[in-house]
Amino acid sequence: MRRVLALLILAAAAPADDIYGKQGSKPFVSGVKVVAETDKVVYIDKSLKERSFAREMVGRIEKKRSDVHECLEMLDAAKDGDAMVAVAKWALERNFGKPAVDSIYGRALALDPRNAAANTALGRVLYKDAWMTPEEKAEREKMDEEADMAAKGLVRHGDEWVTPEDKAKLDQGLVKRDGRWMTEDEIREAEGFVKHEGKWVKKEELEALKLLGPARKDTGLGDALAVAQTDRFLVLGDLPPDQLNDLGATMERLYAEWRKVFPDADEKQLFGGSKYTLYAFKKSPPYQKLVRALFDRLKEDKSHSAAWLQREEERSRARLRVTSFWDVLPLPHSAHVQMPDPYEGLKAHAAHFVANALATRHARLGFPTWWLNEGIGYHFEKQIAGSIQTFSTDVGVAKYAEQPGGEAKSDPWLDATQWNNLLTQLVRTGRDPQLEQIKGRNLYEDRNKLSVQDLAKAHSVVTFLILDDPKKFAAFFRDAKTGSGSEVEREVAAVIKHYGSYGKIEERWKAYALNGFRLAR
Q1: How far apart are CA 119 and CA 136, in angstroms?
Q2: What is the CA radius of gyration of the chain?
Q3: Is the pTM of this model over 0.70?
Q4: What is the mean pLDDT of residues 387-402?
């Protein structure tokens, strides 16, 4: 570069040149400065670098002034850093190459090493009152940081500076959290995670995951079995996710309404310290596999008597003949099949059975008599699902829908939307079922003796009692599940205490029915 600059200075007063070939009317090099003509023609262009080609290629050289000539004169005249910076800016505006402009800024620094404009133009930075390259600055900063940290007694651990004591802890794999050194496992536990099958999961997800694995095997659905959960309900099934989530939300609404009637219920007793498990299937095969798997699991428990297992086996066989069931032992759960009903039908069944299960557990597992339990189920089914689609008998709707020849008959009692009108007709003619006749029916042994009229009457009476005075109904239910004697004896005593007699309940209910199933206020 020194040779180039020397040539520039020597040639500063000479005119610039256009160089032509031996043939042709246009120059093939224009606006340059020829500095030598021997066996080669040597010239300088806007890059401010020396270039050349063979002399025999040149036809003629025409002399004229150019930007190169102007630049050489300005370089010769610049005597300080600022003047040299001005030349660099001038050259940049006239499209001199970057190497040429940078070389001029370099001359500015040779004249004034602290010239801010030249340093900045060359990408240099100021650090602690000294100009340097970014790489030099980074190295200086690193050296200064190390000296500063060493003075403070700190040592490096990865990208951090720590005390030697902390480094020893970190090297052991510990992490400091809230002022305490902990292992990664301890931190995850403190954050509310637990290990399940070798993976950390949130505590609130553990119950669902523990249930999901075995249930996928029990039902044969594998990964098609999904789970949705709310604060109190786990919903497992092969329905679409939005329906699983809707079922959970619907059951939470049911529970909120249920608590309005039974505000003193012990939630831990209702749910057994866990969550209510609701199974919802599109078709019967997974449901039937689940029924068998649950019974097989009961048989593995050697603490049960032979008589108890025989009763459970009979119940399992009964469940295989229907498409829904509920149970409260060991924890409350129910299972439902959608087909051939629409989803809304399954949701209605679930609301009914969840209300049944809550009532039974509220009764401290002493089953309420049939009309009370079913009445509660139908009341909340209608309230939450908006319709009644459940017929709670072991043989199902077919018991009422088939004639001896096997052909289905039209029975308006099977349409729950018509129950009120049909009940009204029975009341007017004095033919409605009497509470005295159905009060002693057992929830299991006497189910096959029930009629749809019995179901409708139980639903209507319980709804009337709840709407008329929910506090009195809750007190009646509480007394019916406590005290001495059989279920029926406790219920009779509670009826007398709170309502006077079954006859008085009948009298008030009939007025309610004849008033279009509206309370007389």
Answers
A1: 14
A2: 47
A3: no
A4: 55
